[in-house]
Amino acid sequence: MKKLYVLLAFLLVQLSAYAQTGSIRGTVTVKGKPLEFATAALKGTQYGTTTNELGVFELKNVKYGTYQLVISSIGYRNITKAVTISEAKFFQELTLQTEELENSLSEVVVTGTMKEVSKLDSPVPVEIYTPVFFKRNPVPNLFESLQNINGIRPQLNCNVCNTGDIHINGLEGPYTMIMIDGMPIVSGLSTVYGLSGIPSALIERVEIVKGPASTLYGSEAVGGLINVITKKPSSAPLVSADVMATSWSEFNTDLGVKYRLGEKVQSLFGLNYFNFQQPTDKNGDGFTDITLQNRISLFNKFSVERKDNRLFTVGARYVYEDRWGGQTQWTPKYRGSNEVYAETIQTKRWEVIGAYQLPIKEKITFQFSANGHNQDSYYGTTPFNALQTIAFGQLTWDKKAGENHDLLIGTALRYTHYDDNTTATALDGRNAPSVVKLPGIFAQDEISLNANNKLLLGLRYDYNSIHGSILTPRLNYKWTSTDKRNVLRASFGNGYRVANVFTEDHAALTGARQVVFTEELKPERSWNGNLNYVRKFFLTNGSFIGLDATAFYTYFNNRIIPDYLTDPNKIIYSNLAGNAVSRGISLNVDFSFANGLKAMAGATAMDVFQREDDGSGELVKMTQLLTEKFTGVWSVSYSFQRIGLSIDYTGNLYGPMKLPILGPMDPRPEYSPWWSLQNIQLTKKFNNGLEIYGGVKNLLNFTPTRDAIARAFDPFDKQVTFGADGQVIPTPNNPNALTFDPSYVYAPNQGIRTFLGIRYNLFK
User: Is residue 508 classed as helix, strand or coil in its secondary structure?
Assistant: First the structure.
């Protein structure tokens, strides 16, 4: 009997505790239609969730009290409503209506100024791309998904291993800094791998800044920034999954799971797995058209709830990838041999990123990141084994100074340890790993001159333990019309970069060319100017048209450009004895019609070249290799709301680019043709969070010429005759005096294919 009383007492306590809580349920709409994936949270508490496909959210077990309910979603106006949970009102049923922002100019961005500001208020032009944009052309990694962004081109650097980098406004990948949540993750050894394996289920948005940002972010931000912002655990679905397969036997899986560790720690786990194990040679050159890959990436983000909503987040990622490309009969037993050619790369990589706001009155935040990269690879018979470890710490002070000044002051320290088996880390015949310490300080002042004009001044000083002092200033100006339909931005700044040839340019390892350094490479310096104009038009029928035009100009000193042309058997590296220029104009146009049709189109015309001393003292202008003069992108979408069906048509167009031919006798064209990749997709949404999608990629079935790889039948140059001077001698078997060379690449070798996928999001 005594045990029964104890049990009854326990149940009464539980009922009493439960009775002190209630629920809030609501529906969020836009123009009468449900808004999904919106965040619903009680300000200053741990209560938070997201709306489902019907726009419905529910907060359960909310303790009695009065709260501020905040509804937020990128591209829509925030809603704040006071709600009370009490004994008399333990259940609240709400209907809330928001509205689209004017072309999403009030979206919050952090890239460009290193602090949260609205896109409209930012003096630095920042482009934002959400998962909705990337879903219009689903691909297995972020590298490929950037192909439909104007002015950005994923460039393949090798026909065999299919590694690549991101070009922004004609500048190669090493000039682009890649970050996760504002922390640098890609540099040196990881330049060609950093965008693979980021689970799409965890991506909140991608922010892009075109042009130098060295003032705030230091080296490697000369061409621009790509900042991947991951979801907050509070706003993510409980479970999300995305599985896709193609007719080429490619399989990709993205998984996200939200969970809690105790009362104050929310966590978000993500997994990406990609597998392609079918050697395919549709162009008949004896080599795989695309590399075989087996990749898994694990990511976990923790968010700790603290007093006064101070920030404390920690994230970690691990990536393992095993890839190979080469002659189709290759098996692992031939790795490193001269019998069957292949390029095999095994990568193990870990990353840790985080941010902690100090528990003091002033807004001072410590941000940190660290990563380790281990690469074990063979390029034919050439081994390349490398280890890289980077540690980064940064302290920033965000301070208002009066009504018109918004200051950001910071200090940073970066430590890089790099070692490989090449001459890059050799000294006097012995191994000498590279160790670089890079302390720096920076400051910026955002000055509000008046309601329509804003000025941003910035200055950074770094001390490179090898190259010495480096100073990088910048200036940004923004004018906004009173009706906020016109925005003009102008920027001017300086950048610098220290190159690591072997880690950034895998053409230095592939093929038969010899790598030659004619001098000790000096840091590159650049000066950049941008002019950006945004104009919005609102039509009487509810339609919207947005224009975004930019003119850019970058001037380089000490530019490091590989020379493929002087000697067809060599890649010659040196600082340019002259100067280099990247200049051009771009235009983006957005259409949003009242009938539900949406379209985006963009075009960039550019001229990227260098002026080099030809030996006579005269500067001769030369077009940069593998850089197109024109690129265009488009995306057209239409939704049939009543039946939950949507259609997306995406594509890009590239103009001719100069290619690295093997001398005057090479029969391959010196310039690529005009080429285009186009895709179409159908998506069916169901009411239970399920989506089924499918379509066709590369509708035109475009692939490069069959002979893109020179002498693919003789990859070890066993039948090539060399003269006493090291040059190739024409023979009946080799009348054009060629060597094996896979660096003649401008487009993917993968032709038309179908794809089918399924997505599912669970919010409860």
Answer: helix
Distance CA 209, CA 49 (A): 30
**649: CB partners within 8 A, 6+ apart:** 634, 635, 636, 637, 678, 679, 680, 681
Q: What is the CA radius of gyration of the chain?
A: 28
Residues 64 and 203 in one domain: no
Phi first, then psi: what are they for 132, rounded to 5°? -60, -40
- Burial class, 332, CB count within 10 angstroms (exposed 0-12 / middle 13-18 / buried 19+): exposed
Residue for token digits 């660290």?
370
Output the CA–CA distances (angstroms, integers) from residue 31 to 16, 433, 591, 594, in the order listed: 42, 61, 18, 11
Per-residue pLDDT of 139-182, as tens digits, reads 988 888 889 999 999 888 888 988 878 888 988 877 888 888 88
| pLDDT of 688 above 80 | yes
Is it the case that residue 18 has pLDDT exceeding 80? no
Rounded to whole angstroms, how far apart are CA atoms 164 and 173? 8
Q: Does residue 327 lie within any of the structural domains? A: yes
User: How many folded domains does the chain comprise?
Assistant: 2
Note the maximum CA span of the chain: 108
Cα–Cα distance between 533 and 551 in angstroms, integer?
A: 9
pLDDT tens for each residue of 319-373: 999 999 999 999 999 999 999 999 999 999 999 999 999 999 999 999 999 999 9
Task: Record the pTM.
Answer: 0.84
| Residue closest to 142 by CA, chosen among 196, 182, 192, 181 | 196
DSSP assignment letter at 88: S
Beta-bridged to residue 475, according to DSSP, are 457, 492
- Do both 175 and 76 map to the same domain? no
**Would you say 159 and 145 are in contact if contact means Cβ atoms under 8 Å apart?**
no
What does DSSP say about strands 292-304 and 690-697: parallel, antiparallel, or unpaired?
Answer: unpaired
Q: Phi-psi region for residue 563, left (φ > 0), alpha (ψ -120 to 50) or beta? A: beta
Whether 105 has a pLDDT exceeding 70, the answer reads no
The sign of the torsion formed by the CA atoms of 513, 514, 519, 521 equals positive
Are 170 and 80 in the same domain?
no
pLDDT tens-place string over residues 740-759: 988 899 999 999 999 999 99
Element (DSSP H or E) covering residue 354 = strand 342-357
Q: d(Cα 541, Cα 229) in Å, to the nearest integer?
A: 35
Q: What whole-number distance in Å separates Cα of residue 250 and Cα of residue 278? A: 8
Partnered with residue 352 across adjacent β-strands are: 316, 370
Q: Is 320 exposed, middle or buried (0-12, 13-18, 19+ CB in 10 A)?
A: middle
Q: Residue 621: which domain range?
A: 109-762
pLDDT at 248 exceeding the cut of 60: yes
- Cβ-contact 222, 496 below 8 angstroms: yes
Q: Which amino acid is at 183?
A: M
DSSP strands (E only) in 262-311: 265-276, 292-304
In a domain, 7, yes or no: no
CA distance 700 to 631: 17
On whether both 458 and 490 belong to a single domain, the answer is: yes
Tokens found for residue 91: 């259940």
Confidence of residue 505 (pLDDT cuts 50, 70, 90): low
Same domain? 57 vs 114: no
What is the separation of C-alpha 388 from the centre of its chain, rounded to a whole number of angstroms? 21
Q: What per-residue string of b and e applies to 713-724 under the rule 16 or more CB within 10 Å gives b?
A: ebbbbeebeeee
CA-to-CA distance for 82 and 494, rounded, in angstroms?
A: 48
Nearest CA-CA partner of 274 in 240, 290, 251: 251
Amino acid letter, 66: T
Asked if residue 35 is part of any domain, the answer here is: yes
Nearest CA to 300 among 241, 255, 263, 347? Answer: 255
Domain end residue (candidates: 100, 123, 138): 100
- Whether residue 273 has pLDDT greater than 50: yes
Residue whose C-alpha is closest to residue 179's, from 169, 190, 168, 163: 190
Neighbours of 203 (CB within 10 A): 22
**Pair 648, 637: CB distance under 8 Å:** yes
Backbone angles phi, psi at 715, to 5 degrees: -70, -15
